[in-house]
Task: structure prediction
Amino acid sequence: MADPVLEIRDLRKSFGALKATDGVSLTLLPGEIHALIGPNGAGKSTLIHQISGALKPDGGTIRFLGQDIGGLGMAARARLGLARSFQTSSLAQEFSALRNVMLAVQAKQGSSLRFFRPVMRDKSLTEPAMAMLERVGLAARAQVPAAELSHGERRQLEIAIALALGPKAFLLDEPMAGMGPEGSKSLTRFLDDLRREAPILLVEHDMDAVFALADRISVLVYGRIIATGKVDEIRNDPEVRRAYLGDAA
Result:
């Protein structure tokens, strides 16, 4: 078996008496989509916060590409190639779709300011940014402010931004949230192709999407992973059915 791209061991985080993550261990392998599912309040977003560096765990280890990243902040983890999209949009709403992606290209290049030429004429920023918009199907909406994009388009834009950072792994937190059936189907097809770019740790409530995409599924309930396995194993696991899937399986 190939070495994990991402490896979490015994991750723990408490808020007072609440154990948001209680000894969580999981791996993300090259080329796979590993879905993380569970009821609301199970600790899924808290776990993603810890992996991305937004929240410091109380204990445990996070290794990315063989390196312990527990002491690194969000920006440093992103520079290593750990790309994240958020459950709620983190876009610069007043900027165009193109400008949003250009900011990510600029961050990847390690330059913060362009003093000697207008930024929108800088081909070293605009060309790679447009390429990312084309990949997610937003090239025709490049000049539209993020605030005027549809919900589905904003999710596509977030993925374009993640792509611009040259990711080695994606952390996607409920990318289907708020989408209608057609939008979810379109994004499912896109994510199925995206795994060729980098493996994906996917937090998602849309079980049709999860079952269509996931190579493996981990089920998080009250901060603990109660099962990890392939789709059929999770569908048929009695404890998972009682705790989460119910009649949906």
